[in-house]
Amino acid sequence: MLLAYMPFHVFLVQSLSLLTGGLDIWKVGKDVFLGLAVLFTICLVWAKGKGTRTFNALVIITAAYGALHLLIWALNPHIYAPGAMLGTLYNVRLLLFALLGCGGILLLPKFAFGSLLKMVLVVSTVVSILGVLQYFLPNDFLTHVGYSIARGARPSFAIDDNAAFPRIMSTLREPNALGAYLVVPATALTILWFRARSTSRRYLVTGLLALHLLAIFWTFSRSAWFAVAVSMALAVWWQNSTWFLRQLKRWWPVLAGLILVAGAVTYTQYNTQFFKQYIAHSDTKVHVNNLDSNSYHALLVKQGLEGIQHKPLGHGPGTAGLVSIQNPGGGQLTENYYVQIGYEVGVAGALLFIGINVWLYALVWRRRDWYGWLLCASFWGYVVTNMLLHSWSNEAVAAQWWILAGMAVALPPAKHAAVQRP
To answer: Which residue did the predictor score with more confidence, 94 or 150?
Structure first.
């Protein structure tokens, strides 16, 4: 249910709260539900005696990660309490999503991944269609359903606030989040294209993939562009390396020509206003303190790293990242999720989080099936986005990958058919 709900959370919160009031209650409702659902799942798994070594380890690791946040908070009692609470929740809920997915499979061993994938793709297709439509709608369209800066959700985005170059975010919070959310569906469609057994099915998958890629392009999120390229390339390589090499040998002159053309276009257009402002984001005239987007990003990362060096035990949860914006005394945007974790809960917290990622990735990789390859390929895509943004702080992006990863470590590989190689 969360996989279907999360992409529409912001839209539903903004629109329904107009009718019912209680905007803040609507905002936190999903997290309260998640906490109760995870607690219920853990109790039910243990009561039925279905707790595996992996599930039990995930429970312990989640508790340890949460306890570390509380300890660092206790060591920094002066920090903004609501921000610390929200920061702890945002960070720990990644593991709560994984626990929910893992426990769900243990309780429902006959689960069919194909059915879930269809649901994920139906939802992402609706989100993509709404995003493409948004590109042509008036900038103030979403103000009619409750979107406003005062209510915590901007109704529109544009490159450097130039209305002539809109950025879509569909039903998610902002364009970068939409681009990151669509990485998993786009990668899944790439895999399904190779698995398609009929021409008509391949045409359908091609159309859906084109729709998703168009939506990703119109987010103008460079991190999402890089992420989906990495994820799709890895998925193709891991499944179809023989086919890939065969096509590369056949078409390498065309590929080389395209690379040369792209290089020539980039070289000749690099100093144009269009390229600086809308592709490279390197126009200092439209950014803060005469810094372009790239330089400003590098500055924030540098400040985050200096903060870690200054206080390696951590400044406390909620003092960095998106949550810190709400702090009365200000916070530290790091434009890098891993640096954010290090800033908040110290070097130990960052190492623990990275270790959790490595452990979960290894478990998923051991599946050696297309489900595992989908998640491992998209994992590296999200490494890209989280090196440039705070992608894991978005509920839709986090829920999708971490719930599916939790399912992957519990669902036996034998449940899936072998990969079809063309």
So the answer is: 94
Judge whether 329 lies within some domain: no
Q: What is the pLDDT of residues 88-145, one digit of tens each?
A: 999 999 999 999 999 999 998 777 777 888 999 999 999 999 999 999 999 889 999 9
Torsional sign, CA 17, 21, 27, 32: negative
> Rounded CA gap, 55 and 107, in Å?
12
Q: Token digits for 307?
A: 């903060």
> Is residue 87 domain-resident?
yes
Residue 203 lies in a domain: yes
371: its two tokens: 């489900």
Residue-number span of the structural domain to which 182 is assigned = 2-241+347-381+391-415
Instruction: Indicate the number of domains in the chain.
Output: 1
Rounded to 10 deg, the angle between the 370-388 and 183-195 helix axes is: 150
Straight-line distance from the first to the last Cα atom of the chain, in angstroms, rounded to the nearest whole number: 34
Half-sphere CA count of 411, side-chain side, radius 13 A: 27
Q: What is the CA radius of gyration of the chain?
A: 22
Q: Rounded CA gap, 251 and 87, in Å? A: 49
